[in-house]
Amino acid sequence: MLDGALSLLAQHAGNFFGDGIEPRRGRMNLNGGYACFRVYRAGDGKYLVLAALEEKFWAEYCRAVEREHLIDEQYADLDRQEEIAAELQTIFDQKSCDEWIAYFRRFDTCVTAVNEFKEAFRDPQVLHRKMIQSLTYQSPDGVKTIKQVGIPIKLSETPGSLRTGPPRFGQHTDEILTGLGYSNKDIELFHQKNVC
């Protein structure tokens, strides 16, 4: 998991290795540095993402909120970006998240809601991609059905599948200890001393 998480930093790591400058939260281009690519709070306290990095999407956004004077300032310096973001925040304050989503459907720009868990797990694309799955399995307490996150890597020849339910606490302890090279005598001693 560490390897996967670290690999997501490839772009920022490349910049750091190149210039030695530590990235600053909220000041890099794509994590809040640009006003055109950041998270804003709607009037109801929910959040929206404006991701209008391409010029055509930014221009359309500015026209949609009647701020055409900002079109040419998309990539202004960071201090000006803060001023632009403050102006955009006053705009987003004027409607609820749902009202903004409905409003922006008429425009070719990139604005979407930041979903809470319950919203993310009902999202049509998440459901279409089968990222929420139910699994029925036999537990010591009887048949159980649980929901869990599906398999993110979709392979046509060898699709992944959910095959077992969650293990009981300690269910695989002996198997794991045997795999680590402990003898049956060692494992029995661990049990006697309540080590496992």
Structure characterization notes:
The protein is an alpha+beta fold and about 200 residues long. Among the domains are: about 25-115, formyl-coa transferase, domain 3; about 115-155, no CATH class. The chain has 10 helices and 5 strands, in the order αααββαααβααββαα. Strand 1 and strand 2 (about 45-50) form a beta hairpin. It is elongated and about 80 Å long. The two termini are about 25 Å apart.
Mean pLDDT: 91
Q: For the largest sheet, list the strands in their spatial order.
A: 1-2-3
Q: CATH topology of the domain at 26-114, anyone? A: formyl-coa transferase, domain 3
The shape is: elongated
User: Based on helices, strands and strand pairing, what is the structural class?
Assistant: alpha+beta
Oligomer: single chain
CATH evolutionary superfamily of the domain at 26-114: formyl-coa transferase, domain 3
Question: Helix-strand pattern, N to C?
Answer: HHHEEHHHEHHEEHH
Give me the number of helical elements: 10
The CATH class of the domain at 26-114 is identified as Alpha Beta
Protein traits:
196 residues, alpha+beta, formyl-coa transferase, domain 3, three-stranded antiparallel beta sheet, two-stranded antiparallel sheet, 40% helix
Topology:
Blueprint: H1 2-7, H2 10-19, H3 29-33, E1 37-41, E2 47-51, H4 55-64, H5 78-92, H6 97-104, E3 111-113, H7 117-120, H8 124-128, E4 132-139, E5 142-149, H9 173-179, H10 184-192
Antiparallel strand pairs: 1-2, 2-3, 4-5
